[in-house]
Amino acid sequence: MNAARNTDGEPDSAPPPVILVVEDEVLVRSIVAAYLRECGFDVIEASSADEAIRVLQAEVRVDIVFSDVNMPGSMDGFGLAQWVRRERPWLRVILTSGAARTAKAAGDLCESGPVLAKPYDHAELERHIRNLLAR
């Protein structure tokens, strides 16, 4: 990976933010992960909440968890957000779903507000992530 450069052309000393993308649909996950990498983020991919929790328990640096709500496995995105809130309260979570009824529940779990509705605009997701990182 190429090192990020500051305005003087010198390498930045700060590592890029790390986004954990949790999505069971491989094509959706790979497309959003590739886009976020192009935006300068490091991306870790997980196909389920269980896999995401294993990543987080491995003490890998993660700045934001971006997760689908509806996933197979022992828990969905809401369960993952609840786990993160309990076990890693400093970590920000963004949820996404195609179901409109999930927006209120997501708003209760995510300090960044309601869930991003699928299909979401990638540029909107990037803005959302950058706003969370700026807080």
Automatic annotation (TrEMBL):
Pfam families: Response_reg. GO terms for biological process: phosphorelay signal transduction system. Keywords: Phosphoprotein. InterPro entries: Bact_response_regulator, CheY-like_superfamily, Sig_transdc_resp-reg_receiver. Signal peptide: none annotated. It comes from the Bacteria. Residues 18-133 form the Response regulatory domain. The modification 4-aspartylphosphate is found at residue 68. This is Response regulatory domain-containing protein.
